[in-house]
Amino acid sequence: MSENTEKFAEAAPGSGVPAVVLDEKAKKSWWTRLPIVSHLRQSVGLQRGMLITGLVLCGIVLICAIFAPLIAPYGFNQLGTAEGNFGATQPPSPEHIWGTTVGGYDVFSRVVWGAQTAVAVIVVAVAASLFAGVILGLISGYLGGWLDRILVVIADAVYAFPTLLLALVMAIAISGGQSSAWGGIAAAALSITVVFIPQYFRVVRAETLRLKAEPFVESAIVLGASKTRIIGKHIFRNATRTLPLIFTLNSSEAILTLAGLGFLGFGIEPTSAAEWGYDLNKALPDVTSGVWWTSVFPGLAIVLTVLGITLVGESMNDLNDPRLRVRRKAKTKAGAAGARDRKAEARA
Question: Membrane spanning segments where (predicted)?
Fold first, then answer.
């Protein structure tokens, strides 16, 4: 038999239901259904280019965060070697490919080590807000009543607070303005967690309200399934399909919040950990004196990281819209058909 041979599903005898044709290509592995992988398979043309570009930028940041001790030639708070100190505001050279800061730190090492701090804030803050927002949204949407009204009011009130302002208050409350490595990360992560919870809460609650009226949920209730089983097994998987998109967009906001804290002087001290916003704050006086490398490279790290996460999020947003995805595929097929027709006319 050839590889393209179709297989037929067996129908119940006497049911009158025709056999269903099963295509081998339709049987996808579990990993092809993952959010990023499935979007990459569906994307075409410019959309695929945007998604790949975003994934490459995010991959570079992750590699720097994981392998910072191997990539960075010096420590994030190292001022010199056995041969002597590095020197302040040294221009780019073979010893310091991105130069040194006004404090005598190697710029390249600070930028690479700063990726660890950025990734830590994303993981702690966004994961915590995702966990809390999903649970509260499922409970509020399914149970309803006075609990739902109270949670909605609280979520609207918290959502009104600016992220950066709340981050400043948390930084002072947690570390007294003297941020250690984990103190600065905790301050930014806690503020972002509190502000982002309403976003996940609203999305999951709206989906839960829609899903609990679906026939499969009503069937589970008739069969005697408990509320915990209905929420955890039947509603959870369907109500959280759009969360990867919100996760990517909130990750970029987390990076900007951490950088804003450091730029305003409430970030992480250079002796505790590397942080891009703090380096930008210390590089401000260097701009007027012609020292450009102390501010350009930390700034590029922030911009490219946020750009990469945003490209991934926007690409996923477009691909989640079936109308946009089908239209792009239709245009691609029409273009291919047109090219084949032109080649046939040229041969004739």
Answer: 50-72, 118-143, 150-174, 180-201, 243-268, 291-313
- The neighbouring-strand residues paired with 22 are 7
- Which residues lie below 8 Å from residue 202, measured CB to CB, with a gap of 6+? 137, 155
Residues 6+ apart with CB under 8 A from 11: 17, 18, 19, 20
Would you say 275 and 258 are in contact if contact means Cβ atoms under 8 Å apart? yes
Average pLDDT, the chain: 76
**Residue 15 pLDDT exceeds 60:** no
Taking Cα atoms as reference points, which of 333, 335, 331, 328 lies closest to residue 50?
A: 328
Angle, vertex CA 114, rays to CA 127 and CA 192, nearest 5? 30
| The pair of three-digit structure tokens given for residue 184, joined into one six-digit string | 């600065």
What pLDDT digit, counting tens, does each position of 82-116 carry? 777 788 888 888 888 898 888 888 899 999 999 98
Range of the domain at 303: 45-74+96-316
Task: Sort strands 84-85 and 21-22 into parallel, antiparallel or unpaired.
Answer: unpaired
pLDDT (average), residues 299-317:
87
**pLDDT, tens only, 326-337:** 454 444 454 555
| Inside any domain, residue 6 | no
81 occurs within a structural domain:
no
Instruction: Evaluate whether residue 108 is within a structural domain.
Output: yes
Q: Tell me the CATH number at 217.
A: 1.10.3720.10
From the list 282, 315, 277, 296, the residue with the least C-alpha distance to 118 is 277
CA distance 298 to 113: 11
Q: Is residue 13 part of a domain?
A: no
- Say how many domains are in the chain: 1
pLDDT confidence bin for 57, thresholds 50/70/90: very high
